[in-house]
Design a protein that fits this description.
Blueprint (H helix, E strand, L loop, with lengths): L7 E6 L4 E6 H14 L5 E7 L2 H22 L1
Antiparallel strand pairs: 1-2, 1-3
Length: 74
């Protein structure tokens, strides 16, 4: 991997029940700011990916699993 490649992180928010994909460097910057400001972030990272598309594919897989769980619980 060269230094110009962007690494992506996929995250999930239980409170908002939504997924988020962003560059890893942005997530780290946001996390540092939240530590400094003493505020909690709801998003939980669950994977690191080489491309934005791979991260979105992972979100889609988990979204399908959520739907299956919702159907079996109802």
């Amino acid at each position: 991997m060269n230094n110009n490649e962007t690494i992506y992180v996929a995250e999930y928010s239980h409170d908002q029940q939504c997924f988020h994909v962003q560059p890893l460097q942005m997530m780290i910057k946001d996390n540092i700011e939240s530590v400094i400001d003493k505020r909690n972030l709801d998003f939980m990272p669950f994977g690191i990916y080489r491309t934005r598309d791979e991260a979105h594919e992972a979100c889609a897989i988990i979204r399908k699993a959520h739907r299956r769980l919702d159907v079996t619980r109802n």
